[in-house]
Design a protein that fits this description.
The chain is built from 35 helices and 23 strands. With 769 residues, it is α/β, with parallel strands linked by helices. A 7-stranded parallel sheet has the order 8-9-7-10-11-6-12, sandwiched between helices. Helix 16 links the parallel strand 8 and strand 9. Bound molecules: adenosine-5'-triphosphate (ATP). The site of adenosine-5'-triphosphate has 19 residues, from helix 13.
């Protein structure tokens, strides 16, 4: 304690404000950490100097004559003895001191705080109450009564370190934010409805769910999803499924069919997972297989069921098996899956590759066929049949030529079903059905229901259309659809619009054309890579509420896709069948919301389209007020629409040229590869000639060649012209609505001003829906 005696007023230090004591304690412990490598020295051999105190200390009794020493470490041993070590301040030590600064220690300001009104309790936070006074005293040796010069350097270094730390923190923050953005871009937020609102349960009356005999965990999870009560199809189907019946459910688009089968399946999983040995048996065989006609729908169903499970304390493993993703990964996932949701093509590919997998799938307890009428009739026919066959027949059955009755429950859902289906299923004999090999009825029979008469639940037998849907029709020339589509999009700005085409090539062409017209547009069709498809839907839905966003899609998006907040559906091409009209229009006005569906019809399409829509609205035959449903016509101001023509023509030309160039490059690549394989030299002109003289496709190739050969300069000139046109005001001339102004600011319009001047809306205004 020699060194301490040198200070004439050590007891005064002990009485110093608590904050200082805390600092002192911390310094001791730091010093202790660093001490091991250096030699002990005696207190007397330390280089004590008279401490320079601030003026305000001059008359401060007791501090007078205080001496200070630098670069010394004080080590307190367990037996309460103290040792000093000469400390050469190393870089790490400096950093440690800087850290101290960050915590508000060891700087000038802090010293003065000690004499002000700084409340002691703050400092005492750092100071263990059991700390002996002697320890606090020790610290003054290390106390910062250093030379001004040193302090200046110290301060500069502090600032530097602080700056570096700030930069680091900022970088990390930025990284986290970008990471989040990237994640959310890849994650299909379209399909996500989950918002964890912890307080929702408090105010929600959940009795309607409870009445369905659901477990409290599921009800809790539904409350977290903010679903206060079941939709009609859910209320009708869930009890039947829970009772073990096979169910065929029909309900309009967007009416909650997914959870109608999803809830009982997850409920069953919870029940099984509680039973002894359940986990073992569940891991071998999936509980449920859900078949979906499209990849997007499969992913959406997966998300929807995952969202339901997210609110549960433990949840099943839900996985989707669709084309466009790695087969090997999916095979691995299938080994542990509880609920499998997939498209028939990929599922069959994966299942047929492994007899173990096929065997394990024979034990599923639920087979769900979503959008059944499409899945069983279009394209997937063969693969779906193969899957059902594989699920039903054991090797023994194969030998005997029969399949055993299905042990599983079969659940079939759609918004549209063939008339009289139930009757046929229940009443007709197998042989009669067998004669209609390709019909949906035949395949439904193939589903091998467990019950002779599955429960048929039709919650809205009169109309398949959603309540909040309004429908309209625009008549235009067959070659004017691009123009009228553009006009319609201007007429309904600031909304989410889904444009349906009958062909991939139209979707491919329209998306860039509308982009050229400064409209935020994304394509979606089955020839796009899976990632690009997801990205398009993401971007479409990523637009903020009140901002214009357009998705141009083929019928790949018509079925089941639950894209939130679609306000307007435009049928660029008239749908080929009534059910397509129902499903396309069903992308809007979902879950009790409102929406608008508008068809662009060439004159010759008007009558058959009206007939088709009337058919959709007609009842099942028992007579209905809606039998003669007449879809409203939107009167567009044709003169005015024609003023938009130059810009649409240019936008189309630019889009076509780009597409031709893209296609040309691909064709060239293909031909070059083919030539290489054949061992001949590739000459594009020669190849072109072969195409031209060779007959088929020659004319088309010529056209494409012209578009492809459009120079960059020509394209640039067209772009400039279009830009100019887009920036110009449209003279509305004698338009009824805008006769007073005579001019319309297109820029303003594209920013979202209303385009009412383009035509009369007859109550088909989105705001009035
Ligand atoms: N009980 C409920 N209460 C409120 N919203 C619900 C409820 N059940 C489902 N929803 C929501 O309704 C929307 C439509 O549900 P879903 O996609 O299951 O409809 P769908 O009947 O399968 O439609 P489609 O025939 O077009 O496939 C979803 O956004 C879903 O989250």
């Amino acid at each position: 304690m020699d060194g301490l005696k040198k200070r004439k007023s050590s007891d005064q230090v002990a009485n110093a404000p608590a904050k200082k004591k805390a600092k002192a304690h911390q310094s001791v412990s730091k010093s202790t950490k660093k001490a091991t490598a250096r030699k002990p020295i005696s207190a007397n051999s330390l280089r004590w100097q008279k401490a320079k105190l601030p003026d305000m200390f001059n008359d401060s009794e007791g501090f007078f004559g205080l001496e200070e020493v630098e670069d010394v470490e004080v080590i307190r041993h367990d037996d309460n003895t103290v040792e000093f070590r000469a400390a050469k301040v190393s870089t790490t030590e400096e950093i440690e001191r800087d850290e101290g600064d960050e915590n508000g220690q060891d700087n000038e300001e802090d010293e003065f705080e000690g004499f002000g009104d700084d409340p002691a309790p703050q400092a005492s936070k750092n100071q263990p109450s059991s700390l002996p006074m002697s320890e606090i005293e020790d610290v003054t040796t290390d106390a910062p009564v250093a030379k001004k010069q040193d302090k200046k350097v110290q301060k500069q270094e502090d600032k530097k370190v602080q700056k570096q730390e700030d930069k680091k923190a900022q970088k990390q923050k930025k990284k986290a934010a970008t990471g989040k953005a990237e994640d959310s871009e890849l994650q299909s937020n379209v399909f996500s409805t989950l918002e964890t609102m912890e307080d929702t349960q408090d105010n929600m009356d959940l009795s309607a769910w409870v009445a369905l005999d659901l477990s409290p965990r599921i009800v809790d999870s539904l409350a977290k999803l903010k679903f206060p009560k079941p939709t009609p199809i859910q209320a009708a189907a869930i009890p039947q499924i829970l009772e073990g019946h096979d169910v065929i459910g029909k309900a309009s688009t967007g009416s909650g069919k997914t959870l109608a089968f999803g809830i009982p399946i997850v409920e069953k999983w919870l029940e099984l997972s509680e039973e002894d040995d359940a986990s073992e048996s569940l891991s071998k065989t999936p509980l449920a297989l859900v078949l979906s006609p499209t990849r997007e729908l499969a992913h959406q169903l997966t998300e929807h069921i995952k969202n339901l499970c997210a609110g549960l304390p433990n949840s099943p493993y839900v996985c989707s098996v669709t084309g466009g993703l790695s087969v090997h990964k999916q095979q691995r996932q299938l080994l542990k899956a509880d609920i499998v949701i997939g498209t028939p093509g990929r599922l069959w590919e994966v299942l047929s590759s492994s007899s173990d997998l096929t065997n394990s799938f024979r034990g599923i307890q639920y087979l769900v066929v979503d959008e059944a009428d499409r899945l069983l009739t279009e394209g997937h026919f063969q693969e779906a049949a193969e899957i059902f066959n594989a699920l039903d027949r054991t090797e023994q059955d194969e030998e005997q030529g029969e399949s055993a009755p299905s042990p599983r429950q079969t659940l079939v859902f759609s918004a549209t079903f063939h008339k009289g289906l139930q009757q046929k299923l229940a009443g007709k004999s197998r042989s009669e059905l067998m004669s209609e090999k390709d019909s949906m009825e035949y395949l439904l029979k193939k589903l091998n229901f467990r019950e002779e008469k599955p429960k048929f639940i039709d919650v809205n037998p009169v109309s398949q259309m959603a309540e909040g849907l309004k429908e309209g029709l625009v008549e235009c020339g067959a070659m004017e659809k691009d123009l009228y589509l553009y006009a319609l999009l201007l007429l309904y700005p600031n909304v989410r619009t889904l444009v349906f085409t009958n062909s991939i090539s139209s979707a491919r062409r329209l998306a860039p054309m509308l982009q050229n017209l400064n409209l935020q547009t994304h394509p979606l069709h089955s020839q796009m890579a899976q990632k690009a498809r997801l990205r398009s839907v993401e971007r479409f839905t990523g637009a903020k509420q009140g901002q214009s966003s357009i998705l141009v899609a083929t019928d790949v998006a018509a079925r089941g896709l639950d894209i939130p907040g679609v306000d307007l559906v435009v049928h660029y091409h008239v749908p080929r069948a009534a059910d397509a009209y129902v499903h396309r229009s069903g992308r809007t006005a979902r879950a009790d919301k409102t929406g608008l569906s508008i068809l662009l019809c060439a004159p010759e399409e008007v009558i058959p389209t009206r007939r088709l829509i009337a058919k959709v609205h007609s009842s099942t035959g028992k007579g209905s007020k809606k039998k003669n449903f007449f879809v409203q016509t939107l009167d567009m101001d044709r003169k005015l629409v024609n003023r938009l023509k130059p810009r649409v023509t240019l936008a189309k030309k630019i889009a076509d040229a780009n597409l031709a160039k893209e296609k040309g490059n691909k064709d060239d690549d293909w031909m070059r590869n083919a030539a290489e394989e054949l061992g001949v030299e590739y000459d594009s002109d020669e190849m072109e000639k072969v195409g031209k003289w060779g007959g088929r496709g020659g004319g088309r190739q010529e056209k494409q060649k012209q578009a492809r050969e459009m120079t960059k300069a020509e394209l640039g000139a067209m772009r400039a012209e279009l830009r100019e046109l887009l920036s110009k005001r449209i003279n509305t001339g004698v338009s009824e609505n805008y006769i007073a102004t005579g001019m319309v600011d297109m820029d303003e319009l594209l920013r979202g001003a209303k385009g009412e001047f383009l035509g009369k809306v007859h109550g088909l205004d989105i705001e009035t829906l």
